[in-house]
Design goal:
Length: about 220
């Protein structure tokens, strides 16, 4: 397997965590596509992913897999142990719903191409753009917080006492809100409790953007 990603990419983070949770190894180190420098628009990468976003995963020299949730579901289906989706249909629907709040409603509104469009095309200044990022980052977490607070399936993690894909997506959204959006997350205590539980697991911690090759030295510590 070959993974094309970027240290700062939260979608790539989700794939890294899932690979680690399942004990799957890449055939070579992650291939960096510097989305801050626009390398995702290079012809060579466009051939892999016409949308010019990361990640892309190559498996067995087949066509590239794209979109993080599709990749996560592929990994779940092809490497089903440990399971990251519940055994029951209702549980799987809940986990997928929590995932979608983060990856479909929260994250897409703050990605580089959206931020660039706000600034370059709509003339939004940097301060207003940053408020946009913080607002939508936190809104997703506030929605997850309500589910965690009021649904009995919540356990040590988002759903029960073992990590699921919901935790993978929640962790990426917390990073977006707290570290990229500089949000006050004190209003989502259940989200933060689950996040801290996740970060005790090596798969989550070592996959963190700040620990990746290419991350600025001041972030890597």
């Amino acid at each position: 397997m070959k993974l094309y990603g970027f240290w700062r990419s939260l979608a790539t983070y989700r794939v890294r965590v899932t690979l680690a949770l399942k004990g799957l190894r890449l055939d070579e180190p992650e291939i960096s596509v510097d989305i801050l420098q626009g390398r995702q628009f290079d012809d060579a990468y466009r051939k892999l992913n016409p949308q010019s976003v990361v990640p892309a995963l190559i498996v067995d020299a087949g066509p590239p897999l794209f979109q993080s949730m599709a990749i996560l579901e592929y990994l779940e289906e092809t490497a089903p142990r440990p399971a990251l989706l519940p055994a029951d249909a209702r549980g799987r629907a809940r986990v997928r719903g929590l995932c979608q709040i983060c990856v479909s409603d929260g994250h897409p509104l703050i990605v580089p191409r959206i931020r660039k469009y706000l600034e370059k095309d709509l003339g939004v200044d940097e301060a207003a753009r940053n408020r946009w990022v913080a607002h939508w980052s936190l809104k997703a977490l506030e929605a997850v917080e309500q589910h965690l607070a009021h649904e009995r399936e919540t356990g040590r993690y988002c759903h029960g006492d073992a990590p699921t894909l919901a935790d993978v997506c929640l962790a990426s959204q917390v990073i977006a809100a707290r570290e990229y959006g500089h949000c006050d997350v004190s209003g989502v205590p259940r989200v933060m409790r689950v996040y801290e539980e996740c970060m005790q697991l090596e798969a989550f911690g070592r996959s963190h953007p700040s620990r990746q090759q290419g991350a600025p030295a001041d972030l890597r510590g």
